[in-house]
Amino acid sequence: DEMDVDTIWMDGEFVDWDDAQIHVLSHGLHYGSGVFEGVRCYATDEGPAIFRWDEHLERFYASGKPYDMDIPFEKEELTEATMELIRRQDLTSCYIRPVAFYGYDSLGVSPKDNPVQVAIAAWPWGAYLGDEALEKGVDVMVSSWRKHASSQIPTNAKTTGLYVNSLLAGEEARRNGYTEAIVLNKEGNVAEGPGENIFLVKDGDIYTPGLSESILDGITRDTVIELARERGYTVNDNATISRGELNTADELFFTGTAAEVTPIRKVDNVVIGDGSRGPVTEELQQAFFDLVERRSDDHEEWFTYV
Ligand SMILES: Cc1[nH+]cc(COP(=O)(O)O)c(CN[C@@H](CCC(=O)O)C(=O)O)c1O
């Protein structure tokens, strides 16, 4: 395979990449009834280290709860499978994608007795929004599509079906020449990106929308909040950010497992700050990479060594 990975763990076994197949009548394909995680493993002097595996695994199981989806494997089994998957493919820094979904027994909206299938894949994945993005930032647009409200579908569950909202917003942005979208919630305030949380810096203070703004409780968001507070910043992690505050921000940046810490330099072609990565963004981005690549030995509890 072009990503020089060849193995996937599926329903308790390691299978060849091309043999990891499911039935076309799988419930998850028809009704979006799946949950997934995105986790990064970083190469460090002590070997590959999975970042905040416990929190990701916790969220993986919690995401299934609204759908009565009981994942038929213990956390220890999934942890061992993931470590073995990384070892078998000699991966060091890689992206890990666990997914669980209702498979096929009978069709119909109710998952009834459909089996819950689980798979884990891992592959090398570079900068999510492009190589230049981490340094130069990205140009984004505010999408015409709103985020679904947490009262309509639990936004705090990483449900596969929800990502059509992300696809609509992200593809609208790219169709219009931008790299990514910012999605407002149904109140018209800032929620997050299609696959990222968002942070705003103004007069030296840091703001990020709270869970009530219909966002995913991001693990990278939590990490950056902690790193910022450790550096003495005032962080409002329950902010309501209006659309207009995006234009007058000193700095904006995305956070996410895939996106890591990505500066935003323009919103709908309005230059943010001086149009380059801001100083607070750079400081937190550097702190993040020093942490995950273990140049800093803080938060050892956040690392699972393979
Ligand atoms: C909607 C959304 N909001 C915020 C985040 C950031 O959460 P966290 O990874 O815990 O910091 C992600 C992760 N998006 C994942 C999927 C990306 C994809 O393209 O698929 C990811 O970053 O792995 C989201 O999908």
Radius of gyration, in Å, reads: 19 Å
The tally of helices reads 8
| String of helices and strands | EEHEEEHHEEHEHEEEEHEHEEEHE
Tell me the strand percentage band.
25-35%
Low-confidence stretches: none
The bound ligands are: the ligand Cc1[nH+]cc(COP(=O)(O)O)c(CN[C@@H](CCC(=O)O)C(=O)O)c1O
Percent of residues in helical segments? 25-40%
Number of strands: 17
Can you walk through the features of this model?
This protein has 306 residues and is an alpha+beta fold. It has 8 helices and 17 strands. The strands form 2 sheets. Strands 8, 9, 10, 11, 12, 13, 14, 15 and 16 form a 9-stranded mixed beta sheet that branches. Strands 1, 2, 3, 4, 5, 6, 7 and 17 form an 8-stranded antiparallel beta sheet that branches. A hairpin with a 2-residue loop joins strand 1 and strand 2. The protein starts with 6 loop residues before the first strand and ends with a strand. 43% of the residues are buried. The protein binds ligand PPE. The site of ligand PPE has 15 residues, from helix 6 and strand 14.
In short:
The protein has 306 residues and is of the alpha+beta class.
For this entry, give a set of tags:
single chain, 306 residues, alpha+beta, 9-stranded mixed beta sheet, 8-stranded antiparallel beta sheet, 8 helices, 26% helix, 27% strand, globular, binds the ligand Cc1[nH+]cc(COP(=O)(O)O)c(CN[C@@H](CCC(=O)O)C(=O)O)c1O
Sequence-ordered SSE layout with sheet pairings:
Layout: E1 7-10, E2 13-16, H1 27-31, E3 34-36, E4 39-42, E5 49-51, H2 53-64, H3 75-88, E6 94-102, E7 116-123, H4 133-136, E8 138-142, H5 163-175, E9 180-184, E10 190-192, E11 197-202, E12 205-209, H6 219-230, E13 235-239, H7 243-247, E14 251-256, E15 260-267, E16 270-271, H8 279-292, E17 303-305
Parallel strand pairs: 8-9, 8-15, 12-13
Antiparallel strand pairs: 1-2, 1-7, 3-6, 4-5, 4-6, 5-17, 6-7, 9-10, 11-12, 11-14, 14-15, 15-16
The structure holds the ligand Cc1[nH+]cc(COP(=O)(O)O)c(CN[C@@H](CCC(=O)O)C(=O)O)c1O.
